[in-house]
Each structure stands twice: as C-alpha cells, then as structure tokens.
Amino acid sequence: MQVNQATQTDINAVLAQMRALRAEAQAGVKENLAVGPQQDVANPAATRQANFGAMFKGALDQVNTLQKTSSASANDFLSGKSDDLVKVMVDSQKSSLGFQAAVQVRNRVVSAYQDIMNMP
C-alpha cells in the first residue's frame, strides 16, 4: 500500500507541475499578444526574430544543462560516488529526449528556410 501512495503522490506532483507550466505558458502568450501592437512598427520582423532567437537559445541552453547533468550523474555512478542507477537512467533519457527535440526543431527550421529560398 505504501508504494501505491508514493506513486500517487509522485503522479499528483507531476500533474501539478504540468498545470503550473501550462498556466505560465498561457500567461506568456496573453502577455505577448498584449504587447504585440506596441512593438516596433517600422521593423516588426526584427522583433519576432529576436524573440524566436532568444527562445531557441534558451531551449538549447536547457538541453545543454540536461546533457551536463546526465554526464555528471553517469560519472558519479561509474566512479562509485552514487549507487542510484534509476537517477542515471532518468537523466540519460531526459538528455536524449531534449536533444532529439532540439534536432527536430532545427530540421523543421532548415526545411522552412529551404522552402522559402526555393520560392520563385
């Protein structure tokens, strides 16, 4: 019974975190929509490019952090400093998924760029 309660607590914690992130994302979208008309009217593309660039850089920094964490936990496990194999595997999967997502976004951006450049 103890395992089920702990699992239920973990699931509830993850769901609460997901709800908080969704609310934060929705608030960010509403904030960006409210700021939209006040942006630089002379050069709106530069404003959008800066926002996308900053967002993409932040995502890449987060992937980099995940990879460093994964590497550190694997090194700790291999050197005997830690015996938590589950943490090593979870960190490894987080790193892998983050990297795969970043590669997919990059591929889509490159594909969109090529489509635009091939237009007559």
List keywords for this structure.
mainly alpha, 86% helix
Explained architecture:
This protein is mostly helical and 120 residues long. 86% of the residues lie in helices and 0% in strands. The chain is built from 3 helices and no strands. Helix 2 runs antiparallel to helix 3. The radius of gyration is 20 Å and the shape is extended. It starts with a helix and ends with a helix. 3% of the residues are buried. About 6% of the residues have low confidence.
In short:
By secondary structure, the chain is mainly α. Helices cover 86% and strands 0% of the residues. It has helices spanning 2-35, 44-79, 85-117.
Described by the principal axes of the CA atoms, the overall outline is extended
Instruction: State the helical fraction.
Output: over 70%
List low-confidence stretches.
32-38
Q: How many beta-strand segments?
A: 0
Strand percentage lies at under 5%
How big is the Rg? 20 Å
Q: Give helix and strand order, one letter per element, not per position.
A: HHH
N-end to C-end Cα span: 66 Å
Structural category is mainly alpha
| Major sheet size, sense and barrel closure | none
Number of helices: 3
Q: Average pLDDT across residues?
A: 79
